[in-house]
Structure formats: C-alpha cells, structure tokens
Give the backbone structure.
Amino acid sequence: MEKISGDKSDPPFFPGFATLDMNAGGVHFSGVIGGSGPPLLLLHGYPETHIAWRKVAPSLASSHTVVIPDLPGYGASRPHNMRPRWTKRRAGEALNQLMLSLGHERFALAGHDRGARVGYRLVLDQPGVVTRFASLAVIPTLDAMQAVDYRYASKSYHWFLLAQEADLPERMLAGAADAFLDKAFALMNAEEGDIIETSARDAYRSAFRDPAVQHAICEDYRAALNEDLAHDQADREMDRKLDCPVLVLWPSSAGSAGRPDPVEVWKRWAVVVTGGTTSGDHLQLEDRPDEVASALVSFLSH
C-alpha cells in the first residue's frame, strides 16, 4: 500500500491541502488531506465527490488531520475489481485500510448521505476503531426502508430506479447524465448557481458522466436493497450497537408528521446519541456549511 506521488500544487477546491492519491484495500483512492491533529475521516454522499466537503473542511482542519477521499467507485477513487459488489461493508473495510496506510489506527468519522451509511457500517464491523461518529442526514438503511411511504418514494425515486438489475439504469444514466444529476440536486433544493457554485457543479457533472462511476453508483444502490439491508437486519437481530458516541445532524426540512425521529432511531443502534438540526435541506455541506462545521467542531472536541 504505497503512497503515489503526484502534483504538489493545491488540489482544486482545497487551498493548502495535499492531494490524496494512493492504493489501499483494493482501491486506488483519490481525494485530499489537510490540517493537523487527531485524524478525522470525512465521507461524501450521492451524487457528489469529496469536494462536497470543500466549505466545511477548512474549519475542521484547524484542529484535526482531515482525510477526505472519494468513496470507492465515486469520483476518481477506482476499485481494482468491481466483483464482488462494493457493499457498505466492503467500502468500510477499504476505508479502514486507507486510514491504516496513513498511520491512523483509530480515528473520528463524519459522513453525509451514502458516506454516513458506509460510516456506520465501518463502526459496526470494526469495533474499537472509530472514536466518534457523525451521521449527517441519514438513519440506518433498515429503518429508512421500513419507513418508506409514497411521499418518500416520489422524492427519493433514485433509490429504487438505480437498484434495478443491470444494465438498464446504467443505460439510462449514460443517455442523460447531466439531466439526471441536475434533477437530483433540484430535489435537494440545490438549484444551479445557488448553493452549488458553477465550478463545483461542473466537477460533479464531469465525474457523473463517467460510465465506470455510473455503474459504481448503481451497484451502491443495488447493495443497499440487498446485502446492506441484510447486514443491518442481522445486526438488529443480534442487538449489535455502535461502540462510540454518535452525533445525528438532521436537516430541518426533512422533518414531517409520521416520519421517525432520527435521534430515537439512532438510540436503537448506539448507547450515546446526541442530535441537532441544520436549517437547510438535504445537502447540508453545501447549503449550511457553517452550521455543520460548528456542530462537528463541538462534537469532536468532547
């Protein structure tokens, strides 16, 4: 697991950070590293890349060594082999190997959306490794799927479309990648030119147009409704719990009558759970970065 030397200039969107470019856990990881202090792994969500953390990372880097990779298959992080499927378990194992390769046997972890799903699976599967875990906009997959109603399904249709058997979803994405991405952002109240600046949206579009990324994203959602769901169910039956403090940071716009309270859901999965809200929508890192940074700094400092 040898670090690969690359361009020494500042990586795009992260002034003062170094480029992460190395092999670990069966993945050629791409991303950035910055700051100093205790290690902190930051994981992005769908349909983004590591640059989702660009507005939050500088605040965290003042007190932590921040590691921000693209998730396996997303962006420029390329698995050496797509078989077996990249479940959240397999992704978590690879990310743990990445942190070990960087010299971090224990670390804090914050994940948004898909990154939070990989994050809690890593905590459950690798006890004693994660010191603190922050889940942004996510409850565990088992609970999320048990709570699905027509309102959720109509807004989060991609869960079920992308999970269809190959290769119909891949062919649909290939035919309208930009339109699909823009629709996803619009459903998250991230209109073009508003909370996602043009340069960042262009970077997201460039990554999303890649057929390898499109396939990896579809495999991610196929895993969610198959292997990942089975892993959650097995943990629920054994009453396995996350062995570290958990912060649940929820967008205020997501609350609605009849939906499960995210803090109460997480209390079934962890002993120490605290909760908070951000005032925006699902893309918390994009539209409320100062609120996210403040909540994470406070959580990580205890």
Summary: The chain has 14 helices and nine strands. The longest helix spans residues 88-101.
